[in-house]
Design a protein that fits this description.
Blueprint: H1 2-12, H2 16-39, H3 41-46, H4 63-95, H5 99-103, H6 109-142, H7 149-169, H8 171-179, H9 183-202, H10 213-218, H11 230-253
Length: 258
């Protein structure tokens, strides 16, 4: 509990919570703008939101479409933003030279790692809930159709499942930031994985690449697109387990010389 309190204090005194909240606010707002344009293309052109010859296809301006767009935002943007959170939480100790002080405390190193992962998970889930609530407000403001309690409940469950998978998939970035003793290795791993996820999905093998699974689950490939199977979900769980246990083992066993 002391380790959790310390991590919460670090997060509270940082600007990163505000940065991530603003990022998801912009994402939800952009999704609302897309829905607003799809509602009436002529109105959008008259307001200057859409070029005279431009058009938007592949989406419907209703609640299911907006919820699906939010889920895709969590899947794709979450890899970067949740990844940024986990890299900051673990990498800051080395970049700011506080790792040796932290490891000298009479607290098990695995407890420190567990507290960090707990804060990362809670932080990411709160951002997901914030995005869903903001989406409800934006959708109501622009008058989206197709609302039902069942659709809202199912969409919220999809958002949380997408977020949970994404959180599991960013845990290896903690190991990269720890082993690299700073932000650079973690950020590099995050961008490499994001690039590979896009390429492998385009090649048609995304359901076998763990970091592509949340986006496919959220429907980025469309209603008739390639969906992940049991193997894909199992790989997501495996990555999460290996990421957390690997990071804990590194903190416990690695030679901490600085």
């Amino acid at each position: 509990m002391n380790a959790i309190a310390a991590e919460l204090l670090k997060a509270r005194r940082s600007r990163l919570p505000w940065v991530t909240a603003v990022a998801f606010t912009i994402a939800a707002g952009f999704g609302g703008l897309v829905m607003f344009i799809l509602q009436d293309l002529r109105r959008a052109r008259a307001l200057g939101l859409l070029g005279a010859k431009a058009s938007l296809t592949g989406g419907t301006a209703d609640w299911p479409g907006y919820f699906a767009l939010l889920a895709q935002t969590i899947a794709v943007g979450g890899t970067l933003l949740f990844g940024l959170i986990v890299v900051w939480v673990f990498g800051r100790e080395f970049s700011q030279g506080t790792a040796k002080d932290l490891l000298a405390l009479p607290t098990p190193r695995t407890a420190i790692v567990g507290a960090k992962f707990g804060v990362v998970a809670a932080w990411s889930l709160l951002l997901t809930l914030y995005t869903s609530l903001l989406g409800l407000a934006i959708g109501s403001a622009i008058g989206l159709t197709g609302w039902s309690t069942a659709i809202a409940a199912a969409s919220l469950a999809n958002l949380l499942l997408t977020a949970a998978m994404t959180i599991a998939l960013v845990t290896p970035f903690a190991l990269a930031a720890s082993a690299g003793r700073g932000y650079l290795a973690g950020v590099a791993a995050m961008f490499v994985v994001t690039f590979l996820a896009q390429v492998i999905t385009l090649l048609g093998y995304g359901r076998y690449f763990p970091w592509s699974v949340p986006a496919l689950f959220a429907g980025t490939a469309g209603p008739q697109g390639d969906l992940p199977g049991p193997l894909g979900y199992a790989l997501v769980v495996l990555v999460g387990v290996l990421g957390t246990t690997g990071t804990a083992a590194w903190w416990k066993l690695a030679d901490q010389d600085r």
